[in-house]
Amino acid sequence: MTENAKNQKLIVIGNGMVGHHFLEQLASHQQATNFDITIFCEESRPAYDRVHLSEYFTGRTAVDLTLGDIEQYRQWGFETRLNDKIVEIDRENKTVCTASGISHSYDQLVLATGSYPFVPPIPGHQHERCFVYRTLEDLDSIRSVAGTAKSGVVVGGGLLGLEAANALKALGLEAHVVEFAPGLMTAQLDDGGSALLRNKIEALGVKVHTSTATEQIEEVDGHLRMQFKGGSELCTDMIVFSAGIRPQDELAKSAGLQTGERGGIVIDSGCRTSDSNIFAIGECALYEQRIFGLVAPGYSMARTAVAQLTGEEGTFTGADMSTKLKLLGVQVGSIGDAHGRSAGASAITFVDEQSGVYKRMITDSEGQKLLGAVMVGDTDDYDTLLQYHLNDIQLPEHPEQLILPTTDGTAPTLGAAALPTSATVCSCHNVSKGQIVDVVAGGCHSLAEVKDATKASTGCGGCAALLKNIVDEELAVLGMEVNNHLCVHFPFSRQELFHIIQVEEIKTFAELLDKHGSGHGCESCKPTAASIFASLWNEHILEPTHVGLQDTNDTFMANMQKNGSYSVVPRIPGGEITPEKLIVIGEVAKRYDLYTKITGGQRIDLFGARLEQLPEIWRELIDAGFETGHAYGKSLRTVKSCVGNTWCRFGVQDSISMTLQVENRYKGLRSPHKIKMAVSGCTRECAEAQSKDVGIIATEKGWNLFVCGNGGMRPRHADLFATDLDDESLIRYIDRFLMFYVRTADKLQRTSVWLENLDGGLDYLRDVIIDDKLGICTELEAQMERVVDTYQCEWKTAINDPEKLKRFRQFVNSDQTDEKIIFVKERGQLRPATTEEIVETAEPA
Amino acid sequence: MSLAALQQNLNNSFAITRPQWLPICQRSDLVTNSGVCALWGDTSVYSTETLKTVTKTVDQRSVALFFLPEQEQQLYAVDNWDPIAQAGVIARGIIAEMEGELTIASPLYKHHFRLSDGVCMEDSSIRLATYPLAFNGDMVYIGSNKIQ
């Protein structure tokens, strides 16, 4: 078949996560051009990320969750038909027919029709306040009803059911879980794990009803009354069914394809159905009597189908269904044979009732191999155990040590070196250890580069720690130094140096170098030390002991431009400025003939100032009430804002007041890199807070706090950190967050990269900042308070100190100006002359 | 050391080039562990009374003066013009030790120039001119290699 593959007509039915992955894989294949590809999608929107569906309730939008992109498909040469349902497959003539009656012929057909939620046929289940938890539309409906509801019931205590319960709780409802089976998550957990999970979830306020079968639902006095077998009942305002999924196989069934007794399109290891020209992938497919309701096996099927279509080797032989996740804040992990049903299986169990941890590992009869494991309350060991399981690695002599707490707090992890190269590290994107080793050898020498090149750890992120270990290990093998030392002069990371300076109360670079460094320092360690001194002791950056440490922009408290002139940015908090002050800026710009431009941060940048003009310019600005904008520093730059409910008809909070409060609080804070913030007065997000290091978005009840976003070269969407905060909690969290960042980040590391490299990620950050896991929050707040209390406008201090102004002379021995700085006019303003222009205007020798 | 003695000293050590010593600025104009820029030309005359150069010639140049009190050699003078960035900014760089050598890192594109001979560490074909510099009382003197 494949040698005649030129311009085969390929039709793909369904555009969910798996369908999308199939297209992605095919598009990147060199034979992609051999196919004319048409995608039919019943829904009105292309594929989106259902794994993270619940995040739709916590700030992510439909656009954020989108995976499929019609424009992208078009660029790949694929035709996409949304809202176009296929209702019939004519296998004899090899055509499919749409609901509108148009038929399309195919050579090969891929069914990626997915699944639908199973709703038990309980009388009353069609009530308008009964929902399923599957699509964005479902979530919209749930949200709109939740606004007026007090309580909600989830029918189904599986993984998705608990997630739905979490969503109801987050929407402010009293949440109940009704489960037919005697325990929660019985597919993944054994009895012990299930029982602990239940305790923990109940402690969070979710009411759990197990061994409970619903017999009827009826509306009574505006409420929904659920009647259970045995006579008990429960009144609620809305019901969400999450009782499992059923494969979407109607189309296949009516076309006469072989399907399973309980549904599912039967496929072989090549993902071909009983008709060899038709493939089925994802949750609609049944392989060896099993439906695979996770995304990783679906992706694996998609890759298999692509391989088969392009004549390459590739088979699907089942998939590991191990999972690690956080449900209602409880960590849960399940690996392999979690129930210990294999013949001869024996178990080792660790239970800590005090801190609520349950771990159980299932081994073979000799205790040599790991068959499965269950973890509730603590999944730190998951990665290590999973690798033992997946790669059949011989267990250590005392396997119990793998799950027992150690006295020094560190669990023995499986060294990356112990893994075979075939070991799958990232199961979301099917990346093996071998592939990672290859890209490291091929020149990717940082975690970010490896992630970029392999996609490893960009799915669920569960393998992040393991990936880092492998990369470090490989770099070490290549003889590359894996250290985060600041530079050759200090054998410490920035974080370590910060600690040293803080504990020993070191105030000068000379002392620091003398006690802990060597040599004379360089352009790397000097500004870093200066920044740490400023964060901790907040002395003026131009004090004689500090001046030689500063980068040039800090030295002259202005931004050097390409010809050696400077730009000046006065602080305009929140972009709010009186006409009088605006006129002063205009007058100053006019007087000194400065190129004037509005910045992206709602401020005004004045370019083309000569070194010797800076003090005069600032004297005028300060007289008019301006302060330095720190545009030159690794420090808080600007807090962008919208006008909020003061002016805007959509605003729900006073975003301007909040902006002024935070900008005035954190101005002057020196940090590892620049910090940007924004405050939006409603979810319309006009201030673009989700692209900032700290983003604040107003809600009806208070403020949502987003952290670690970034614009610029490597855009990163900020993570929702905490919701509905009052003013005080908001400031407290930002105090702690910023100080923790200042303390622990590497030099020149933005918050986005810092978070990506933070072991434990966002959850850990929440543990530290919100739950005070490290017990340092009081100290962080005090430290911030000290910085706030010792704020001074650096320029105001400088213009009143002749000693500090000494350097603001072009020549220390002459009043002449630098004649090499040449400007020309363009669009009514000055700009630096180009090299060619300078040559033209130069006097002949 | 008197100026005459200094002159004699340097005349000896620079026997071939015979530098001429001229005042360029005051000691207090220098910034510890960092640089300042001064104007200097062969025929310019620095007045020790007005503390300014009083005549201007076409062959004036800006020099960057560095004062490193902790070092054996405390004073360095190199051309202020950064030929890579095409701007007069060397004096505003940061003193950096690189591969055991004292250098000045230019503020624009961060190239390092060795203070002792002006050679660019990243590209040895580029070199800044260097000049001898010395204290004489409260004054700083720069040595010219040109013949009187």
UniProtKB/TrEMBL annotation, chain A:
CDD domains: NirB_Fer2_BFD-like_2 (cd19944)
Secreted listed as a keyword: no
Binding site for [4Fe-4S] cluster: 642, 648, 682, 686
Cofactor: FAD; [4Fe-4S] cluster; [2Fe-2S] cluster; siroheme
SUPFAM superfamilies: FAD/NAD(P)-binding domain (SSF51905), Nitrite and sulphite reductase 4Fe-4S domain-like (SSF56014), Nitrite/Sulfite reductase N-terminal domain-like (SSF55124)
Record keywords: 2Fe-2S, 4Fe-4S, FAD, Flavoprotein, Heme, Iron, Iron-sulfur, Metal-binding, Nitrate assimilation, Oxidoreductase
Pathway membership, UniProt: Nitrogen metabolism; nitrate reduction (assimilation)
GO terms, biological process: energy derivation by oxidation of organic compounds; nitrate assimilation
Record-annotated Nitrite/sulphite reductase 4Fe-4S domain positions: 633-758
Keyword Lyase appears in the UniProt entry: no
PROSITE patterns for this protein: NIR_SIR
Domain NADH-rubredoxin oxidoreductase C-terminal residues, every copy: 322-386
Domain BFD-like [2Fe-2S]-binding, chain residue ranges per copy: 425-473
Origin: domain of life: Bacteria
Binding, siroheme: 686
Pfam annotation, one family: Rubredoxin_C
MF terms (GO), sorted A to Z: 2 iron, 2 sulfur cluster binding; 4 iron, 4 sulfur cluster binding; flavin adenine dinucleotide binding; heme binding; metal ion binding; NADP binding; nitrite reductase activity
Domain FAD/NAD(P)-binding: 9-305
InterPro entries given in the database record: BFD-like_2Fe2S-bd_dom, BFD-like_2Fe2S-bd_dom_sf, FAD/NAD-bd_sf, FAD/NAD-binding_dom, FAD/NAD-linked_Rdtase_dimer_sf, NasD-like, NiRdtase/SiRdtase_haem-b_fer, Nit/Sulf_reduc_fer-like_dom_sf
Domain called Nitrite/Sulfite reductase ferredoxin-like: residue spans: 561-622
Cofactor note: Binds 1 [4Fe-4S] cluster per subunit.
Homology family: Belongs to the nitrite and sulfite reductase 4Fe-4S domain family.
Quaternary assembly: Homodimer which associates with NirD.
Full protein name: Nitrite reductase large subunit NirB
Organism: Microbulbifer okhotskensis
Gene: nirB
Automatic annotation (TrEMBL), chain B:
InterPro entries, A to Z: NirD, Rieske-like_NirD, Rieske_2Fe-2S_sf
Keywords: Nitrate assimilation, Oxidoreductase
One matching Pfam family: Rieske_2
Single GO MF annotation: 2 iron, 2 sulfur cluster binding
GO cellular component term of the entry, any: nitrite reductase complex [NAD(P)H]
GO aspect biological process, one term: nitrate assimilation
Domain Rieske-like [2Fe-2S]: residue ranges: 53-142
Alphabetical list of Gene3D superfamilies matching this protein: Rieske [2Fe-2S] iron-sulphur domain
Alphabetical list of NCBIfam families matching this protein: nirD_assim_sml
Protein name: Nitrite reductase small subunit NirD
